[in-house]
Amino acid sequence: MTETPERADERQVCTLIADPASRDLDLADIQAVREGLRAAGADVAGHRWLAEHAAADLPYRGITPSTAGEAARRAVRERPLDVAAQPETGRRKAVLVADMDSTIVTGETLDEMAEAVGLKDRIAQITRRAMHGELNFEAALRERVGMLAGLKEADVKATLDRVELSKGARTAIATLNRHGVTCALVSGGFTAIADPVAEWCGFDRVVANRLIIENGALTGAVAEPIVGKEAKLATLRDLAGARGVHESAVASIGDGANDLPMLLAAGLGVAYRAKPSVKAAARFALEHGDLTGLLYLQGYRADEFVARG
Length: 309
Hints:
This protein is an alpha/beta fold. It has helices at 27-39, 65-75, 100-104, 109-114, 120-131, 137-146, 153-158, 169-178, 191-201, 229-243, 260-265, 276-281, 293-296; strands at 12-18, 43-44, 48-51, 55-61, 81-87, 95-98, 182-190, 205-209, 211-214, 217-222, 250-254, 268-272, 284-286.
């Protein structure tokens, strides 16, 4: 994607998001950000609640989003709040591309599969290095799946019993569905887990790797081509094309190094509880809010949410 130059003359919005369980956003926080934006040269309008004490917007003009974001983060740097600044026009997106492991679900599902053969700690170490970008993702995936040769298909399916959705996942996807957004789950994990997770949440499309199973057990191989960072980015572009929209009308969310290309390509690329290098490179991040923060970033109010567990 060719990045659109930032402008200071159009209407922008700075969004503050707290953990909705704590509802720790107060008027003092909003005032601190207002003063920080003004000190940076912005003309700031009055705030509007998206969800009282959980999320609020501060419209402004006169400075770029990057300048505003830096000023706002400095203003509340000691507070458990997520901050984002962006143009107000085109804020709501037509497409969402979401990672699964450690994003839509709380853990790494391949690591959970490995527990059945006593290799969870060993495989989790490889996973961790791959997600930090220290290892080639495709090679690391082949290595880990190879270590699971002989694992029973029933044990793979049993992993689903331990899969936990991240807070706000079902509400976020149901709300986006209600508003006509195309939602795709694009995972470096496996269809055996991704297909049910997508059904639980209401995703329209699933792109994930496929384990090769013979005689009821894993062979230790994964079907090619592997879904890695290039496939995630290609899926984002394909979905944008199918909807007839620019990549700026796409939202993406993920946590690992293999998610970074799609985070950088999307108009709203959100690093969610992300690895440090990913958070540092992404333009948007959620560290304190749950996955409903993906809705607040697009300007949805809590009374527009489709409430699901």
